[in-house]
Write a structure and sequence with these properties.
Number of strands: 12
Strand content: 5-15%
Largest sheet: 8 strands, antiparallel
Distance between the termini: 65 Å
Radius of gyration: 20 Å
Helix content: 25-40%
Structural class: alpha+beta
Order of helices and strands: HHEEEHHHHHHEEEHHEEEEEEH
Number of helices: 11
Length: 410
């Protein structure tokens, strides 16, 4: 066979394989994030070191574990973990945030936070509950009467806890066909539920747990309905501004602001492929479209998982957990599902947080219940139970060891 024909066939096969991986990565619960972030400078927390600062506080054992994770054949090109205790932060990095330049990951790199965006939609909804504009018992029928009648009995509480039974629009063949043909296609995010509007509920609301991207789209639409304001405006007013998040946003495009943590498709023996800007964010929106930074993600999760953002009464509802229901991907230790937040019970103690994954990225953000300590853990390739489960198992082990260091350290 002529070399040119072989090369053409090889390139066609590689492109077909990429489309297949993209389709897998964007289906069902695995679909979780894209967006372009804001360009303003972040609020600087007192005592936060830059990478390499405070090396005397670094745990060499943790560093070796991060290095080994990156050294795995199918592992991420880079990783960054931030452990915050009060006003002190330790930054651990391994590998690179950009293969082309060799630059290491940085606390202020923009990145796709994947399904951790669901915690942001939870923050908006629960703050509106505190303001009396929403109730956890409000139904789709009351707030979104134009949605299918079969869904009308579903409550806000069930949406936030993934017990709604709503069919997942991101697994719909019609949605995936559009996205596979044009990964940067611009959807109207407020019509995403139309892809499954002719489908019944998958189960009686409240009877089962099933992680669904449709849930958080409906949450955002309910927030818009009661405030007559866009979800993006509500994020700015209720979350970003109170917490000083200046590099966190929810745009609809595919570009990332610079600098950013590059995300890669890692399929040995092929070289890692940069897919940071391969997919537009409009198809995930409130279910996973937010871009943030490791530093700002830590700020958010300490507030949302701690006592700072919500009233004690609403927080009690938020932290009513269903044992055994895991985030996607599963977080460290034993998982349980609350309202847009998960409980991670490890061998060293309990954290509250959220995970996420999307082509190019896998994320964890977690905090102690008092909001004084947090861990953010970001790698720049995707892993989930359906995509590299062995890597996910290794990742969860390393994450749990970082949790133990976070809880035991002073």
């Amino acid at each position: 066979m002529p070399t040119r024909v072989r090369d053409r066939d090889r390139d066609r096969d590689r492109a077909r394989a990429r489309r297949s991986r993209l389709r897998t990565g964007l289906s069902a619960a695995v679909l979780t994030a894209t967006a372009v972030g804001g360009l303003l400078q972040p609020a600087q927390a007192a005592g936060d070191p830059q990478p390499g600062d405070g090396r005397q506080r670094h745990d060499k054992g943790l560093q070796r574990q991060l290095d080994r994770l990156v050294a795995q054949e199918d592992g991420p090109p880079g990783a960054i973990a931030m452990l915050t205790r009060g006003d002190r932060t330790e930054v651990y990095t391994a590998g690179v945030g950009d293969i082309q330049t060799g630059r290491p990951p940085h606390p202020d790199d923009h990145m796709r936070i994947a399904s951790i965006a669901k915690a942001f939609s939870g923050a908006v909804a629960l703050r509106l509950v505190d303001q009396g504009l929403l109730s956890l018992d409000d139904t789709i029928g009351e707030r979104l009467p134009d949605q299918p009648a079969a869904w009308h009995a579903v409550t806000l509480r069930q949406l936030l806890q993934h017990t709604s039974g709503l069919p997942d629009y991101s697994a719909d063949p019609g949605f995936l066909e559009i996205l596979t043909a044009d990964p940067r296609h611009v959807f109207d995010p407020r019509t995403l539920l139309d892809f499954v509007a002719d489908e019944p509920l998958r189960f009686v609301p409240g009877s089962l747990y099933e992680y669904s991207n449709s849930d958080n789209i409906a949450v955002a639409l309910m927030a818009e309905a009661v405030t007559h304001r866009s979800y993006e405006d509500l994020l700015r007013e209720l979350v970003y501004r109170p917490l000083g998040l200046r590099r966190t946003s929810l745009p609809l495009g595919y570009r990332l602001p610079r600098p950013y943590l590059h995300g890669y498709d890692v399929q040995p023996p092929a070289e890692p492929e940069d897919i940071s800007e391969a997919v537009g964010a409009s198809g995930v929106w409130a279910s996973g479209g937010i871009v943030s930074t490791p530093r700002e993600l830590g700020t958010f999760i300490r507030a949302y998982g701690g006592p700072a953002l919500l009233s004690p009464q609403t927080r009690k509802e938020q932290l009513t957990f269903r044992p055994g229901d895991s985030s996607e991907p599963a977080g460290p230790g034993t998982n349980a599902a609350g309202l847009a937040i998960f409980q991670y019970t490890t061998r060293c103690g309990v954290l509250y947080g959220h995970t996420g994954n999307f082509p190019g990225y896998t994320q964890l953000a977690a905090t102690t219940p008092d909001g004084t300590r947090s861990l953010t853990f970001s790698i720049n390739t995707q892993t989930s139970k359906g995509n590299k489960p062995a890597l996910l198992a290794r990742l969860r082990t390393v994450q749990e060891n970082f949790v133990c260091a976070l809880l035991k350290g002073h």
